[in-house]
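Data deposition worksheet. Section B asks for the primary sequence of the deposited chain exactly as it was used as input, without tags or linkers unless they were present during the calculation. Section C holds the resulting structure in token form. Section D is free text for depositor observations; keep each observation to a single sentence. Incomplete worksheets are returned to the depositor.
Section A, Depositor: J.P.
Section B:
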Amino acid sequence: MRSPSDHHAYPTHWEADVVLRDGGTAQIRPITPDDAQRLVSFYERVSDESKYYRFFAPYPRLSDRDVHRFTHHDYVDRVGLAAIVGDEFIATVRYDRIDGRGMPAAAPADEAEVAFLVQDAHQGRGVASALLEHIAAVARERGIRRFAAEVLPANNKMIKVFTDAGYTQKRSFEDGVVRLEFDLEPTDRSLAVMRAREQRAEARSVQRLLAPGSVAVIGTSRTPGGVGRTVLRNLLDGGFTGRVHAVNHAFPDGMARLEPEGVPAHRSLRAIEEPVDLAVVAVPAERVPAVVAECGDHGVQGLVVLSAGYAESGREGRDRQRDLVRQARSYGMRVIGPNAFGVINTADGVRLNASLSPHLPNPGRLGLFTQSGAIGIALLSGLNRRGAGLASLAGIAGISTFVSAGNRADVSGNDLLQYWYDDPLTDVVLMYLESIGNPRKFTRLARRTAAVKPVVVVKGARHTGSAPTGHAVPTTRIPDATVSDLLRQAGVIRVDTVTELADTGVLLASQPLPAGPRVAILGNSESLGLITYDACLTEGLRPLPPRDLTTDATPDDFRRALTEALADDTCDAVVVTAIPWVGDGSAQALAAAVREAAQAPGPGPAKPVAVVHLEIQELAQALAGTGGEPAPGTRRIPAYPAAERAVRALAEAVRYARWRQEAAEPGRVPEYDDIDEAGAAADIQVLLAPAEGPGGDGAGVGTGDGASAGTGGGTGRDMGGGTGRDIGVGTGEATSGGLGDGPGPGVELSAADTQRLLARYGVSVLPALPAPDPDAAVRAAERLGFPVALKPTASHLRHRADLGGVRLELGSEAELRRAYAELTDYLGRPEELGLVVQRMAPRGVDTVVRAAIDPAAGAVLSFGLAGAPSELLGDTAHGLVPVTARDAAGLIRSIRTAPLLFGWRGSKPVDTAALEELLLRVSRLVDDHPEMVAVDLEPVVVAQHGLSVLGASARLAPPPPRTDLGPRHMPAY
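Section C:
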């Protein structure tokens, strides 16, 4: 179907599946000569009015010449894209490159005329807006910088498409035609418009799955039991408010109802005479394609595929899974699964339990997404069972919506984040993830969602090095520690276990956010108070001395003490501890006292309260409200059977509140007057030319003198604690600071090229001179000035302080010659060592600054101290580019060895302001030029005043054809 057109090969990377405004899907792809009949059929279904708006005159049919013109493109100067549902065009867009007079042209002309045509039945679905995003991205790729469009004044819909896109534009009116011209360079407004449309469309697509008006369970067995019959039973028992149909091709002829459920029974979906919004598919995998085709023909909006036998079963299953997604999307349907556990929506107007869970949870404020059916079962049953303050069916941890996506071949956690972002029934998002298919998009969506409601994540498969077998996701080289840093930077609360997921979610759903880390502790056990105090210190909180009410404390004593603590300006949260007591008193009375004090109006903002109890299950149930329906407005209090669990949840709330406060005031990316962005772009274009030339795949192409800038042998690891005074020019192994190993594809830059590019951004590298023989070493030292360092740059000796290959503080010619002789006698011939001479740098702390681009996560900036201890401990901080001034300061202070920078054990603090500026400049370099796929500065010696970059390496590669700033599209696996 997709044969090459006139001059250029078919651009497969322009193909994309998109979610439309109403939640349906469509495919966008280039038009080919094989589409002639599709184009003709499409045009016949367009109204005369739409044709008039397109051609400015009555145009009832396309001539053969028109069809040839609209289907034959060179994919450079003439491009056509189509939006397709099923096998039919629903809309087209094309551009033709023009010159300043409006005549057909070729490059370097950078303007094109653009025109759309949308089938009337699909107008209002956002098809034209999606096509505009994609045709604009194609045009930018082909060197076109500006679009022009001529529109009749009455064609308000198309004018609105252009004006609402957010591009910088100008409008003129001449000869009865509105002429619109707009630049294609993305603007803040155009990106905001695109992402807002993406959010609305993807949220709507999830909403259609979670709030259907009718459900068909395909694969319902005739006898009790089986997956399909179980889901049908759960739908009915949960009180689903819509219509339910049972479908099984094995039902006997004439069977109208399935008993004892009493629901309509059908042998096929075609026999259902009314619309079906959601189909739950529970048939063997080999029968699913026929079921999907039937659903598509019937107009079903979405599928929940419970069937197994897909990517989790091997290569054949992976192929079957890809075919499932392609087939469903061709009909405009979204898919949850395959191998899914199901979906739940507890809203009163829906009450959907299309899952294998036997019970519909009571309504609550938690949105729950899992990629594992087993974890989904455990979480739901645990939330139901643990009414002890953690999961009351009465609402302290009730569920708003639940999705267990199985192999997540289509609908993923990103889609649910889009939905929950503005869902008024969800206050806290809980997610169990085993893979993140698009980390860059996930962190963007999570950051936006976390700004309005907490997002708590526990990630499985952290140490396996790969995604679970059923998850067909793009590979990423990001280590788990880096992922954790990026998630926390985005405001995500990362926890380690499913238990912590529930603990933290319950507290956030039921309590206000704390204003700070100060914690008051009170209770009737001194020992339990001390345990809680220690737990607070461990989690970085600031506990006040515990208040012991003694074992004789009554509920009134608890109420008075809690009231006083909540009124105390020196605390931000309260932990109440309780052990069983001897004598009169009941759990109900204590719970009532705690609730009364917690919800009493106070002089300041509300404060969170958590209860730690030992073996008082009735107290937990009473606090949660399970011991009878509490009065309206009663504040439920989370209770925990261990102090560590309560404090850990509270600490996560404190950290999240701090992040939320900082996120309310966006950080600033400073401007530096000495940055030469245009000069760097010109340098990069020249340096990349060999990689982009004929046959160039961008791998292994050298530049300059063929010697890449490297970190040399002395990186602070050579000096142990980081006196930081030597460096050399090495082999240029561009590393990525935890984002993958090896040099990777692209152009490894020479020392001179690397230093020139860095200088464009105000980053200078201390020069090092080659020393192929002793005389050359002396000449280099005389040129640089004594004292100097002598060191090898051979790859097998770099960063190997244990081999003694570095000589420092060489203050004379005699010392230098002696050191040269020792190194060559001990380590090998000069040509094997690659010896260099470098001037000594001021004493300071050795650090490492790296930036690298991961294909999935985007550009990441990393910082840490140089040396084996930091490397062994993994003590490196990571942040998404671009970093703000606040981000840079946070990176420096977030590592465990940060005290070494601020005057540890009486040492003098170093110039962290200069270090922050360096981080910001490197961030700007990588952000401005996506071709900079790796930058490595090691070591960076930070002294009391200023810093010295002693080694640098860099790698360039052509930027990827599509990034998160490109047009919206669904994942293609």
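Section D:
The first helix runs from residue 36 to 44.
The longest strand covers residues 88-98.
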